[in-house]
Known about the structure:
With about 150 residues, the protein is mostly helical. It has helices at about 15-50, 60-65, 70-105, 120-140. The longest helix is centred in the N-terminal third of the chain and has 37 residues, at about 15-50. The radius of gyration is 26 Å and the shape is flat.
Amino acid sequence: MILSTFDGNTSPFIVPVAGCAMILGIAVAGIWSGIRNREIQSHERLAAIAKGMPIPPTVEELAIMHGRPSVDAKRRYANIRLSGIILLGSAAGIILFFIALSAVLQVRPVLCGAAVGLIPLGIGVGMLLDTHIQKKEMSELTPTDPTEFTR
Length: 151
């Protein structure tokens, strides 16, 4: 029995299409989850208003009241720093791989592949610069005098 090349079961495009569909599904689920979370918070706040209770402050409002960056800001800062370090490490790995490959094969044009490592290197340096700027901004938000906000 000969299988047709147009048979849906043997198509070489099943894996890439399924991968793209999965990524799209994850993105849509994340967006829907965020919208649903905000909707629940809104209902809670409206219920507190209807009962005459004080409105509970959000995480961002609490962080502003205490003069500290929110946990989300600290987590974002740490994630950007981690991503920058990972990109710098991968850039070094790519560059060293092509240098070693060039030495083993004794083919000088292979060194052109080391230029690929400049892309994650530049992105990693940019991310680390961003974390440095964010660190300065967070230190400006943090009060130096603990009684500054209680006056």
